[in-house]
Design brief:
alpha+beta; Penicillin-binding protein 2a (Domain 2); Beta-lactamase; 2 domains; five-stranded mixed sheet; five-stranded antiparallel sheet; about 20% strand; elongated
């Protein structure tokens, strides 16, 4: 009985062992089958989904920023270039794993820890967020050395302006995304911008790019832009205008130089200026281009065009005499005065002495339409189409709305408003024989024809009269340039304010052409609110013209045309100095 019981128990143990073995084998085989079926399912039916999920973790499509086109002056000197920089970005979801390192990251980037934390938490569901744009290479290297998950660098470009504030108002600037915001950067943004490309990259577990998988689209750099500006003339003009504004403690100033034969703007400067490289100090009050946005009454600088209108009317010729005594004339209820009684003077002396009475009498003797037409023809009251954003058209009211006093005041530059660029263009038309040319901010390979707006013979007569302005007895003697004949006109304008014209605020102006015998350059200067006793255009603005043109004529290798000086230079030393003995 005992042996039988032992045998039965042994049989049971053996059966249990066999059953366990089959159970284990069954579980193993079942597991393998399930895994095999799952593997087949994933491979055959969910392959695209899984590949997409893997790509999202390790592959990323990034943009390749196109290089913005370079801007150069007329001689090929760069005035706006793009330099490669890195921007630090992150995948907030991945960076959450290293939250304890955010303080160190913030210190490295030079940002506030709370600011960084807010940015990441607010955008935690996104896959891309900039942490800091346009960092220098040293900071970029330190950030990547932290080896934080989800941190990477994006190659971008930063705009740099070698001439700084000298060219600030002309060039303008771009924003952090390299889009033009002001000046020619904005005007030619579509040309300069280019087209971004894109590529697919593979990242490692820290989010760093380790390989380029494929190039999707090739970037196309922006086109270059060659300006009409001569950077050397621009600097000279900037230097002299800034010095004058500082000397007279003026509120502002603007100066424009044009090539009278092509319509190209060679220099355009404003004060106060700004440095487009320093974005932290950009203020809207400083970066508007006053040469094209600000308008002012041109004062006596309009008188050459009043004389042109009078000569072309047929009622006057260069030798005509005008009685300006007693130095005052009443028009309606208003009195128009000269600085003194000039008596009976010819037309040229009206310009030389800047006689308001003489200009008024000439203007009132011709039809308002004829005077208005002359002003309109030279471009007053219309935009110059210089392409600058925010350009003003100035103001020239229709002659049909003029009263007699407005007919009179237009003759000496009150009642209308112009920009400095409009005034420069009008003087360029005087200088080239009476042809109005389109304004160009780009270097021209061909000279435009323009169209005639004034008779050439009358224009030449007025230019000779304008030479008397800078001669002895003229109001613009300080605009003289040694060795060159200068034709110009001064202007001193009372500023309008609440309740009428102000007694103690002026604009000082000078507009001139050189060399007068064969004009090449026209320049206009306006100084806003010079302080002190010297506020006349002949004292404040005329010297700026002389100082700029002295260097400009030399740089452009324009030969002197003052025959008296040339003859003096040709005389032998003994003839010039009787004290010299041989």
């Amino acid at each position: 009985m005992q042996l039988s019981f032992s045998w039965d128990r042994s049989q049971k143990k053996q059966k249990i062992f066999v059953m366990r073995r089959y159970l284990v084998l069954g579980v193993l085989l079942g597991s393998m089958l399930v895994l095999g079926l799952r593997g087949a399912q994933l491979h055959l039916f969910e392959n695209d989904f899984l590949r997409s999920e893997g790509d999202q973790r390790h592959l990323r499509t990034i943009s390749i920023v196109a290089n913005r086109g370079v801007i150069t002056d007329r001689h090929g000197e760069p005035v706006a270039i793009s330099t490669p920089v890195d921007s630090v970005w992150a995948n907030p979801g991945e960076l959450l794993a290293a939250r304890d390192q955010w303080g160190k990251l913030a210190r490295t980037l030079g940002v506030e820890h709370e600011q960084l934390q807010q940015r990441l938490m607010k955008r935690s569901q996104r896959g891309f967020v900039y942490l800091k744009r346009h960092v220098n290479p040293e900071i970029a290297k330190k950030v990547m050395a932290l080896e934080l998950p989800g941190i990477a660098l994006q190659r971008e470009y930063r705009r740099y302006y070698p001439a700084g504030e000298v060219m600030g108002h002309v060039i303008g600037f771009t924003d952090i995304d390299d889009n033009g915001q002001e000046g020619l950067e904005l005007a030619f943004n579509k040309i300069l911008k280019g087209t971004d490309g894109s590529k697919r990259i593979m990242k490692d577990n820290l989010g760093r790019a380790v390989a380029t998988v494929e190039n999707i689209a090739t970037p196309h750099s922006g086109k270059p832009l060659t300006l009409s500006i001569d950077q050397q003339l621009q600097y000279i003009t900037y230097r002299e205008l800034k010095a004058a504004v500082k000397k007279y403690k003026a509120r502002a100033g603007t100066a424009v130089i044009m090539d009278v034969n092509t319509g190209e703007v060679l220099a355009m400067v404003n004060q106060p200026a700004f440095n487009p490289n320093d974005r932290s100090r950009l203020r809207s009050s400083r970066y508007r281009n006053r040469s094209v946005t600000d308008v002012f009454e041109p004062g006596s600088t309009i008188k050459p065009f009043t004389i042109i209108a009078a000569l072309e009317s047929g009622r006057y010729h260069a030798g005509s005499r005008i009685n300006t005594s007693p130095g005052v004339i009443k028009v309606g209820r208003k009195l128009i005065r000269d600085t003194r009684d000039h008596g009976i003077i010819d037309v040229g002396t009206v310009l030389q002495k800047s006689s308001n009475v003489g200009a008024t009498k000439m203007a009132l003797s011709i039809k308002p339409k004829h005077l208005w037409q002359t002003f309109s023809d030279v471009g007053f009251g219309k935009q110059t189409n210089s392409v600058f954003p925010g350009e003003s058209s100035g103001m020239l009211n229709d002659y049909q709305n003029w009263h007699e006093i407005e007919h009179a005041t237009h003759a000496f530059g009150y009642g209308l408003s112009v920009t400095n660029l409009q005034l420069a263009r009008a003087y360029a038309a005087l200088a080239n024989g009476g042809r109005l040319l389109p304004v160009s901010m780009q270097r021209l390979d061909e000279i435009p024809e323009g169209f005639r707006i004034m008779r050439e013979d009358k224009v030449k007569q007025v230019l000779r009269m304008m030479e008397r302005v800078t001669g002895e007895g003229g109001t613009g003697k300080l605009a003289r340039v040694a060795g060159y004949r200068v034709a110009g006109k001064t202007g001193t304008v009372r500023k309008a304010g609440p309740g009428g014209y102000q007694e103690d605020k002026y604009l000082s102006l000078f507009a001139g052409v050189v060399p007068a015998s064969r004009p090449r350059l026209a320049m206009t200067i306006m100084i806003d609110e010079p302080k002190g006793k010297e506020y006349f255009g002949g004292h404040v603005a005329a010297p700026v013209f002389a100082n700029v043109m002295r260097d400009a004529l030399r740089l452009m290798d324009i030969a002197p045309d003052d025959k008296k000086l040339l003859r003096a230079q040709m005389l032998p030393a003994s003839a010039m100095s009787p004290e010299v003995t041989l």
